[in-house]
Each structure stands twice: as structure tokens, then as C-alpha cells.
Design brief:
Blueprint (H helix, E strand, L loop, with lengths): L16 E7 L2 E7 L3 E5 L13 H13 L25 E3 L8 E9 L2 H9 L4 H13 L3 H18 L12 H22 L3 E5 L2 E4 L15 E14 L2 E6 L2 E6 L4 H5 L19 E6 L4 E6 H5 L1
Antiparallel strand pairs: 1-2, 2-3, 4-6, 5-7, 5-8, 6-7, 8-9, 9-10, 11-12
Amino acid sequence: MTRTKKGYIKQGIEGLGFYLEINKFGAELVYNGAFQLKVRFKHLKQKYGKGLTGSEAFNMFNKLCKEFGLDMWDDWKLENSKYKEEIESPIRWLNPIYKDKVIEHAYHIDGNNMWFGCFIEEFPKYKGPVMKLYKEKCTTTDKDRKQDIKDIFTHTLGYCQSIGSKKMKAGLAQYAKAGINGCNHKIMKLVDYYKDKVIAINTDGIWLSCMPNIDHLGSNIGEFKLDHKNCKFRGISANKYEFIEDGVYKPVISGLTKRDKVQPDRSTWGWGSIYDTDTKVHGACYDEKTKMFEFVDLDDLLN
């Protein structure tokens, strides 16, 4: 069984197969036989902080909107679900010319809540509540509140395109489209500018092998900021890379690994740890040739 880049199951599957993926946010099980069954578990709220579900984030943001005389449900229409088909996949990409190569001076520019920044560019009536929330995020010293605000900015628009929710039914998918597609557009404009200086793209941020142009940086929502500079960088994929900044090592891996079970504090890992067998994120896939299940490195499926 194989999956498309958007996570769907490729057509033409014969026999039985399943796909299992577990990461720090939950688990997804897909079974394929005479039919497909997809089960998603709720966001895990252990070890990684409180965390908000999509519906919780949406409701908290909409409560703030009502303080400004707005209600997102007023724009809900079932026919808006058609916009879900127009939503692009967030971009995650490692430039193959940099794969496994050590970059001694790498820089990362990150979008300031880029999805919401693009969202209010297309729907400016929501600028008031968004800017109030963004200002609070930048000034609050309450760690729990700051995490809630991060979750609101991260999960609200995703919930707007949710088809699994009995109430939402993707009826506000136009909001998600504005945020996600707008972010992709800004990312690709930078790719056109920096060309082969682009090392990797991670949704709303870009790793560069050169110092970014100051004209591309700003502090407002929807603008890019320089958050990592003069780093030693090496990547296996867009979902697995490592870098050292000011002498501090940081591995970045999507999902959990065997190493996380015995060495959960990733700050204790060292340069090259991401290449160890125990640091591979594995999943079960059905091999059509052998007609057997086997565990494979999920990064290999993305490259």
C-alpha cells in the first residue's frame, strides 16, 4: 500500500494492506481491503503540553471575533466545501543538491504566523481580532496562554476545512485556502529570488545557504523574520535534519523514533544522531511484490 503526497491511498491496490503512522500528536491507521477505513485519534495532550484540538482552537478564536461584532459561522455554507479541492499541500522540501551535505553557514527565515497573515490579507474584516491575538502572543509571559495562542494560529484554519467534523463539514474552507495557498505563494516568491541558495522549505520557513535580503524581513504578522543564523546544517529530508547554532545542537524530526524512548531529551543527542538506525521513523507498509508487510523508513517514502 502506498500513499500520495497529500496522504491519500493510491488507486489500483490489490490484496490487503494497512498503513500505520504514529507521531507525537496522535496516530493514523488506514486499512485497505474491499474498502478503506480511516481512523484518526484526537490530539494527544500528554508530555508535549496542553494542546488544543482544531475545534477548541476555532471556538476560542471565534469567541474573540464576537468581541469585534463578527461570527465566523455567519460565512459558513456547505457549498464552500468546494474550496477544499483547491487547497494546496503545505510545502516541505529538501533541495537534493544539499542532501547529506554539511552547510557551514546556513540561515533560516520563518513566517510570523504566516497562514493567519495571508488569511487577513484576503479577509481583512478579521484583522482586528487577529492583531489583538498576535499582540498578546508577543507580550504575554503566561506560558500556557502563549501555547494556547500558538495552537489557535496553528489549528483554526485547518479546522475550517475539516470534513470529519459533523458541524464544520468544510463549510469555511475558503478561509483555509486563503491562508495555506497564500503562504505557499509567498514561499515560492522567495524560492524564485534565492534559487539554488534554498536548502530546504518547511511549510512557512526557508533554510538558505546565504544571508537573506533584509528587504524580505519584518516583524509584523505575515512577514518573515530571521530566527536562525550562521548555523551548521545537514539534512536527510525536509522532515529530518540537524543544525548547530551558537554551539547548541538541535535535531528536527517529524514523528517519534526508537531513540526518543530511551533518550527523550533531544538536546542530549549529538551531531549525526539523525543518521542512526534508532532515529528512523518507521511505519508498516504492504509490499505488493512479496505480499507481506514490512517496516520501512517513512522518510524513504517522501524522497
